[in-house]
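tmp note - DUF7803 domain-containing protein
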Amino acid sequence: MDETILVGDDLMTGPPSPVVPPEIASHVLQGVNLCDGILRNLFLCLQINDIEPFCQEEIALYKECAERRDKEIRKRLQDSEFKLGSSMPLDEAKGRASQLEAEVTSLERRLILASGVEGIEGFRQRWSLHGRLTDSKNRLQSLKHGIDSRKKG
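out:
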């Protein structure tokens, strides 16, 4: 039975970490384990050993922590957008929705352009843009649900 050797690219198997808007970052990130200690240990291991096969435990620990962190952040982002949609002044909520729609459109266009980039660089661009696009669409949907819940309530 072959043993799998993890490398840095294995950290790119799921979606990229979500981008947290500065205006809601303090609320969204409060109490979340950002995995910075584990990441420091991984970098230290790579610095000492120079190659990934000697840092398997650190890579696995960071990957697990980052997946947990990103899942929690995504949930909190959507919860925050819903709360904003249901509680901020209606004009501001609609303005925020328009801003998110523009962001989604921009990311869709950039993803189309990135489809022409070949090799690993093209993969990384598409991977990053697809993750950001998915997160932005989910945030927009949550914001709109918040706005709609206000109209029903």
